[in-house]
Amino acid sequence: MFSRSSQRAALALLRSTKRPADRAAYATVQSDIFKPTKFGGKYTVTLIPGDGIGAEVSEAVKTIFKADNVPIEWEQVDVTGVETGDKHTEELFRESIASLKRNKLGLKGILHTPVERSGHQSFNVALRQELDIYASIVLIKNIPGYETRHKNVDLCIIRENTEGEYSGLEHQSVSGV
Question: Which family does it belong to (predicted)?
Fold first, then answer.
């Protein structure tokens, strides 16, 4: 918890922050280039199942979406982060990037990052860098009708993805670190 003086200072800062006069003051995208691809009433969504549990979760999502008649068509690209020595893996990675750029919607399971071999860049990091995904946004909210331990949960967690330990930079700031 914050001390009383910290709380007062934070509240004073919030009150002094200028707020937009009306809704028109918010930035909006006027271009259609960010709209997802839609054909025949269905959105095309890139699916990268991933490795391990990612593939299992992806299959469960497909089953649930089909049962609920969600209007999407999956474009599945079976990229793997497991080092196979196959040049086909790099082609699949490029194909997944092209698919995500084209469809503008995607579901990606976790891709294995080989830590036993230095010099191999994680596909997770490469995807973030290639698509300029600078933040991971996680929305957490109670679902109406389900009993939960905590009530009225409404959180948004934003994690920076391109700097620090998530950047995938291979360097030592200090020898041994």
Answer: Belongs to the isocitrate and isopropylmalate dehydrogenases family.
